[in-house]
Amino acid sequence: MPYPQTRRTDLVEDLHGTPVADPYRWLEDADAPEVTAWVAAQRDFAEDALAALPTRAWFSELMGRIVARPRAGVPVKRGGRWFVSRNDGTTAQDVWYTAPTLEALVAGGGVVLDPNTWSEDGTSSLSTFSVARDGSLMAYAVSEGGSDWQHIRVRDLATGEDLDGEVVAKFSSPGWLPDHRSFLYTTFDQATDARGTATEGLGVARLMVHRLDGDDELLVTFPDEPHTMAFGQVSHDDAWLIVSIVRGTENVNRVWAYPITTEGGRSTLGEPVKVVDTADAEYGFVRVDGSQLHLQTDLDAPLGRLVRVDLDRAARGDVEFAEVVPERHATLAAVEPAGPGLLLAHLEDAQPVVEYCHLDGSGGVPLDLPAGALVALDSSPLRDEAFVGISTIDTPTAAFHVTLPTGDDDPAIERVELAASGVATFAPPHTMIRQRATSADGTEVPYFLITPDDGRTGPRPTLLWGYGGFKIPLLADYRPGWSAWLTAGGAVAIANLRGGGEFGTAWYDAGRLAHKQNVFDDFIGVAEHLVATGATTTRQLAIHGRSNGGLLVGAAMTQRPDLFAAALPGVGVLDLMRFHKFTIGAAWMSDYGDPDTPEGFAATHAYSPLHRVREGVSYPPTLVLTADHDDRVVPLHSFKFAAALQHAQGGDAPVLLRVESSAGHGAGKSLQMVASEWADLLAFAAEHTGLELPAP
Length: 696
Prior knowledge:
The chain is α+β, with helices and mostly antiparallel strands. It has a domain at 425-689: Alpha/Beta hydrolase fold, catalytic domain (Rossmann fold). It is built from 13 helices and 40 strands. The strands form nine sheets. It has an eight-stranded mixed sheet, with helices on both faces. Strands 3, 4, 5, 6 and 7 form a five-stranded antiparallel sheet that branches. Strands 16, 17, 18, 19 and 20 form a five-stranded antiparallel sheet that branches. Strand 39, helix 12 (636-648) and strand 40 form a beta-alpha-beta unit. Helix 5 runs parallel beside helix 13. The longest helix has 19 residues, at 33-51. The radius of gyration is 25 Å and the shape is globular.
């Protein structure tokens, strides 16, 4: 069956002396009638092909049961009350519950927010919320159709009613000031279309103070510093607002501390103490005790350490860091204030180890937690208990309550059940081992290999998952599709590539800008190792990644089309010549560079998946996944890449474009959307890796 017709133009640009063709530039205008008609045709074509897959119904039924498993999140305590999300498996979005005590919350609590009532199709979701410290008001942010744009509303927790009005924000979590009548939020001067494809850029970011009893006030903005954003957190003693200032997605930032004064029921902010005014490292706010500001940093410590600085001295221009927790052999992934001390989370070979220590860094005691991935760490200097969330390959978040010591005792820890009883796991018994591949430059690249214990030996269909960017660690965590793939008899491999955050700043730096090719070499190295060790074969190996991971898949399949049986790039950054021209794309120049400069162009043009597609090459079967309301990685990337592959394909392997309706980059999808996407993805992978379903 022929592909839908796609018009090609003769557009060619001279970029730094190199002619660059862009025959599908017209697909960037997602609202143009020609483009909407093309998308509809591609949707129909993909649906017909996916509906014909013999395992689709099996995966659809199994994924429906997996996402319908009752589950709950990790409790948080805000404004003197406890909150937790739950889903009994029947609603599109999780429902949030609250109670005055933890015991009452475990027993059930009462509904405080139900996103399922916000839209008829279940595509409105909660992106974040915060509660005033006196417990009177909640500010909560609503996302429509998966958009990054947020509509912040305020709810009176006593009455359950919303106040009039709302605030439009983006990438923001509202932070309440001590007067309980004002909160901070981040927004941008220039709004964009919900699809994110018709306008260019985001405009100037502004950190604002929203006054319930007056006009909003501008706190800080940097109109002469493109893509620079500011985010604020109030210290637990209500004395300081700590503001982090960052350019795009860079992993270096400035830190300003604003003194807070509250008089007559109104909080005001004084002139900032510019603790760090040159972005020379990464600094994360931990806590303030008296005049001592604690920061997590990689300054002179690529694996991370904890330092403190005296704000009184810093106000006089004397900034000196005192080390609290020195750099260790493992990556410091997180530090949270906890009662009189601290909770430290290190990554030991991409696996979390959490410990409690005193405020001076002494007396560290590891918490007895199961192996898995750390997905939540909630604590406060104002309480003597904390919660830790752990997920595993086949089990969603498990919540562990930690009673912090008051003397020389060790912390006490116990699991807390917050969801209705349900099936513990859908995956069969399986084994996870740690493997190590070798990249093109000789670098050792670790990965997890998870194989079902079904008695089979020899190579088997394998799904290789990767990301490798923005200093984000990829752990052996829960994703609904893993259980289904393992149940079907396939193996899962999770690669820890350079560019990620598993092994500190040096590991991250080795996978970005001029070194970005290392990420793709690492991924290819893992794939080759899986084949060389007999875990799989080139005819049984599928690759999958989302966002920057979609770029990874696009780069790997265009550089080594012979190595993979199927490619599944999701919401990927695939046009590296123009990524910076749409919505938040310019912020990613921290990892990709600036293609408008000669050096940035040379680096990105060399691996840009769209520009690596060559006519007549036999590319592997490819399912390109995107969503029509993705205003982060706009769908034009997937549109253009799919069109180029369909035109160039030299073999018989299919190239399909799956476009989700009323969805965004991934967050906030309904359970039904999650199940449907995974079913299509896994059925496509099964078809082209030769996966045979287990006997009933």
